[in-house]
């Protein structure tokens, strides 16, 4: 019994949407359905899983743009992000226009998340950490069982999230990475919002923004 996942790049921004599921119950959640819903639904069908929920790391358009439509069409609860991203959710229509995305349907999260919460899919439980800095309400989903973390735009292989958007803060982001991510362990592999996977240990050694001094 374990947690499995498939990365599905979506939108012109090549955002790493992730399909995660319990291999015993075949119940699944989709993390950050930013768009290209047909591609996401095809992956669900291909894996033979049943989609039960949408989990959001944060509410930027490339991560949350398809959420309202997918929730409405499949009657899925929307879990996350943290309430600090309410203004980003409210601004999704403007984000759509600004970045040339299809119009995003408005939505209200079924459940907001806070630091220390857990989310469950099938018999798998993931821990929630609030990691502000890229956005005020950004959260990360951590599965200690498989040593994986779905970190959205907090950390990338060789880089970190942008902090020049409204509500972003560089010092806060660095603190989130060092105080909330590093304790998950060097061996933990993270799935970023864009680009390839890496491990926290590799980033501590070589990432110029957050490596150990």
UniProtKB/TrEMBL annotation:
Basic and acidic residues bias: start-end ranges: 202-213
Limits of the Metallo-beta-lactamase domain: 14-194
Signal sequence coordinates: none
Gene3D superfamilies referenced in this protein's UniProt entry, alphabetically: Ribonuclease Z/Hydroxyacylglutathione hydrolase-like (3.60.15.10)
Keywords associated with the record: Hydrolase, Metal-binding, Zinc
UniProt keyword Repeat present: no
Molecular-function annotations in GO: hydrolase activity; metal ion binding
InterPro entries registered for this protein in UniProt: MBL_Glyoxalase_II (IPR051453), Metallo-B-lactamas (IPR001279), RibonucZ/Hydroxyglut_hydro (IPR036866)
Ranges where the record places region Disordered: 192-213
Protein name: Metallo-beta-lactamase domain-containing protein
């Amino acid at each position: 019994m374990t947690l499995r996942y498939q990365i599905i790049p979506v939108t012109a921004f090549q955002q790493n949407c992730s399909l995660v599921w319990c291999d015993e119950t075949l119940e699944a959640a989709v993390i950050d359905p930013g768009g290209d819903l047909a591609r996401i639904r095809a992956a669900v069908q291909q894996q033979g899983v049943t989609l039960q929920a949408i989990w959001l790391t944060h509410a930027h358009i490339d991560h949350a743009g398809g959420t309202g439509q997918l929730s409405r069409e499949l009657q899925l609860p929307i879990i996350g992000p943290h309430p600090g991203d309410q203004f980003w959710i409210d601004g999704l229509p403007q984000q759509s226009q600004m970045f040339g995305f299809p119009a995003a349907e408005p939505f209200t999260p079924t459940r907001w998340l806070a630091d220390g919460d857990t989310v469950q899919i099938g018999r798998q439980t993931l821990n929630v950490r609030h990691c502000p800095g890229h956005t005020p309400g950004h959260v990360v989903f951590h599965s200690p069982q498989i040593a994986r973390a779905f970190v959205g735009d907090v950390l990338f292989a060789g880089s970190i999230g942008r902090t020049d958007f409204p509500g972003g803060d560089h010092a806060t982001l660095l603190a989130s990475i060092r105080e909330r991510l590093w304790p998950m362990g060097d061996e933990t592999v993270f799935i970023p919002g864009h680009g390839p996977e890496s491990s926290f240990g590799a980033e501590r050694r070589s990432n110029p923004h957050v490596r150990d001094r």
